[in-house]
Design brief:
By secondary structure, the chain is mainly α. The chain is built from 10 helices and 4 strands. A hairpin with an 8-residue loop joins strand 2 and strand 3. Helix 2 runs antiparallel to helix 3, helix 2 runs parallel beside helix 10 and helix 3 runs antiparallel to helix 5. The longest helix has 19 residues. InterPro entries: Atg1-like, Kinase-like_dom_sf, Prot_kinase_dom, Ser/Thr_kinase_AS.
Length: 224
């Protein structure tokens, strides 16, 4: 695993006694979504997005925190024709369609997992977390949507999460669409993020170079 002196996003998600300021949460979410947009732009699907797979690093003396998606062990090229023959992912982060009998796995599973990641970051709990994959599947098939938790007061934030956690993958938004959501683009959102934090979020664009390198590795190994 790449060096990250602040470990992973799970460090924050497990500390309910330390609430994130709104501008920090917004900047982190934006940076992670930018990384996901870059990853998806080369037709890859990660399949194991979760708090533990998002690294946090703060270069000494910079006063900045960089978030980076990691662990590409389950990553593969998008394949709309072939069903997934085995389950990949971490149970609480798995999307509703992954529990279907013959699932076709698309990039939308990563989007749902990001929604759960942000949900956990904010509430410090999972919306659905059964004891095993069979019980999780039973519970997910009975639900039509994720209920709004009391911890989320911001209406724009909840609207964004609802779109990320949409049960129908065809209606679930992409990372690029999420970045155009008013939670990031409204006047209040822009005012909430300082110039330095906007610069921090924009650093995710550099991830595109690394994503292109990753794509070349996938092609060389023919590991589709």
């Amino acid at each position: 695993m790449e060096y990250a002196n602040m470990k992973t996003l799970d460090i924050i998600a497990k500390q309910p006694q330390i609430p994130l300021p709104s501008y920090t949460l917004r900047a982190l979410m934006k940076q992670i979504l930018q990384g996901m947009r870059a990853f998806h732009s080369v037709d890859l699907v990660h399949r194991d997005i979760k708090c533990d797979n998002i690294l946090l690093h703060s270069p000494p003396g910079s006063g900045r925190v960089y978030a980076k998606i990691s662990d590409f062990g389950f990553a593969k090229k998008v394949d709309f024709l072939n069903e997934q023959t085995y389950l990949a992912g971490t149970i609480p982060f798995m999307s509703p369609e992954q529990f279907h009998k013959n699932p076709i796995i698309t990039q939308k599973v990563d989007i749902y997992a990001l929604g759960i990641t942000f949900y956990k970051l904010i509430t410090h709990k999972y919306p659905v977390n059964e004891r095993n994959i069979k019980e999780q599947g039973k519970k997910m098939t009975k639900l039509k949507s994720i209920d709004r938790p009391s911890e989320i007061k911001d209406n724009l934030l909840w609207d964004l999460l609802q779109n990320l956690l949409e049960f129908d993958p065809n209606k679930r938004i992409s990372a690029a669409q999420a970045l155009q959501h008013p939670y990031f683009t409204s006047p209040d959102a822009i005012a909430d993020i300082s110039k330095e934090q906007q610069d921090l979020a924009s650093q995710a664009a550099a991830a595109e170079v690394e994503i292109q390198h990753l794509e070349r590795i996938f092609k060389q190994e023919n590991n589709y």
